[in-house]
Amino acid sequence: MLYWLTALSDGGDFFNLFRYITFRAGGAFMTALLFGFLFGPPLINVLRKRQGKGQPIRSDGPESHLAKSGTPTMGGLLIVGALLTATLLWARLDNPFVWLVLFVTVSFGLIGFADDYAKVSKQNVSGVPGRVRLGLGFLIAGIASYWAAMYHPEALQFQLALPVFKDTLINMGWFFVPFAMFVIVGAANAVNLTDGLDGLAIMPVMIASATLGVIAYAVGRVDFTDYLDVHYVPGTGEILIFVAGLFGGGLGFLWYNAPPAAVFMGDTGSLALGGALGAIAVATKHEIVLGIVGGLFVVEALSVIIQVFYFKRTGKRVFLMAPIHHHYEKKGWAEPQIVIRFWIIALILAMIGLATLKVR
Asked: Any known ligand binding at 171?
């Protein structure tokens, strides 16, 4: 919205700053951060009063989690509200990729909100049936995947770009749409599975989103893509505004989610943010790089898949408990120890993913 202030500029005054994505990204970050600090306490108070007993705690989970009973959920509303406000205020609203990422984020957030509401109102951990969640998720992802393909340059439409290999594209045809759907839905559910300890999911999401934001900015500038030998996708630079809002909102949320958490992110936040990561990867043609940058989420999801698959066939467990962060809890690791070590792993993977921009 504020981008239109450039119409008042003569090219050398203050209003000219609004032409620059980096300036507006800084504004989006500060806006989202202030939003989090201002609206965090009243939102938490409202959630605590409305939810009563808070988020139901799994009786078969780690015993230490029983002490968290009564903590309100749906804290993802704070993050989504912050990034929405920041993006609508600072991004160019004529950019289709901005609306694509917002569409996925809000839509998956609504699915998560319905799931959280069902859990809190019924006071059980079931929520919305998994098939319904997946069905709605794939529908949203299908719309977003086709949308992205239509706004990609003609030479990149329905193509899969490979990291490291210079100028390599695989023509997937219409199979690109279901592939991109899997990326978005997979990212959403992987982040959802990771969100099991105070602060565990939000920091890796912020790290991954910041990395993807840098990639989005780079592939949206023809001079950068020429230098880095990556594919140019006009317009993706504006996604950096969204990412800055996510980062600021995430920091604001983390202030209240740091152990012991005053509020849980809930599916409202984890599905929304995971879907956002997937949508950014599809928009920027970096779907495979997302698997590296978000490698922590991949491992969390795989630990569940392996556990279920192996248990159904042998009656035995590979891990003491899945997702894998619970395995380490069962082994006696303290919650902050797990969280901080997983943050470090997320940062290392993000740096590896970022390196793929230059390693050609």
From this structure: no
